[in-house]
Amino acid sequence: MRKPAVLITGASGEVGFGLIDRFAQTDHTRVIALDIKPLPEELQARCSASIVGDILDENLLQRLISEFEIHAIYHLAALLSTRAEYTPDTAHRVNVEGTLNLLKLAHEQTRWHGHPVTFVFPSSIAVYGLPNVAAKEKAGRIRETDWNFPTTMYGCNKAYCEMLGRYYSLHYRQLAAESDIRRIDFRSLRFPGLISATTMPTGGTSDYAAEMIHAAAQGVPYACFVPPTARLPFMVMPDAIRSLVQLAEAPAEKLSQRVYNVSAFSLSAAQLRDRVLSAFPKAQITFDPQIPRANIVDTWPADVDDSPARSDWGWRPEYEVGRAFDEYLIPAITKRYR
Ligand code: SER
């Protein structure tokens, strides 16, 4: 008998760490972790299986479903925005073909056991593309349907995979002869910049926030690669994990859309520096904008309108900016480097 399980791809990334922790603490979900990098041992112990492998390896995915009956997939594996600009072909393969492989697997599993596989997909503010800073300032908090003109390979990949997910949920095999086609249940969140107290992101463009705080706590100087005026929405990791699980568990009839903005607070890089300085007064933070990379931040919204998530499935961040710094980031990061 195959055992029912939840599959987490990209499990060795920072969202994966938080999600594995959450499942280990709160219920008895059988977790299959998949990543090209091995999981640290303490996290392996919290999973039923921890597989080192590539989401592009279809044989590996087939072997996986011969052993486990997958009921939910948290598909986190991706190359983030900065890294994807350096290797756009690889990014397309991993971010798009990899997602397609997982969508096919989810569909196959849905046909086998008859329950729609919940497919949770973290998308991003990178799907938005504002033409310039003036338009960004004027746009304010933007809705899911506005400014869908991504300017990065990563943003294009995420936007397209949102559409693929919707297609697999609603229309896949629409011309097939069988009348009762069971399809997957795709749900996606457009995350703002995520900040974790325990892990560092790699290859993202919003990474300056985490880098600035972690450098200050270590007493290391930090030159921020965006100007003080650059503004983005952010969220701390505990809220990101909670939002993923809450969306996955929301009753289907409550969801009026498949892709939701979620946000917690919006900060300029100068405001971020001020928060960091008030916790670490000796921090050496300078601004040395790296223009092409900083320009990507200018195309992303200053904030997003997450009212559909709030009204459909009760999204509320637990960490507004004050609490995020005072009760999560500063104490946990200080402890980490003590
Ligand atoms: N945080 C991501 C990045 O910077 C955006 O989703 O690439």
Describe this structure in words.
By secondary structure, this protein is an alpha/beta fold. It has a single domain, classed as Rossmann fold (3-Layer(aba) Sandwich), CATH 3.40.50. Helix content is 45%, strand content 19%. It has a seven-stranded parallel β-sheet with strand order 3-2-1-4-5-7-11, sandwiched between helices. Strands 8-10-12 form a three-stranded mixed β-sheet. Strand 1, helix 1 and strand 2 form a beta-alpha-beta unit. Helix 1 crosses helix 9, helix 3 packs parallel to helix 5 and helix 8 packs parallel to helix 10. The longest helix is centred in the first third of the chain and has 26 residues. The protein starts with a strand and ends with a helix. The model has no long low-confidence stretch (mean pLDDT 96). Serine binds next to loops.
Keywords:
binds serine; 14 strands; three-stranded mixed sheet; Rossmann fold; alpha/beta; 338 residues; single chain; 19% strand; seven-stranded parallel sheet
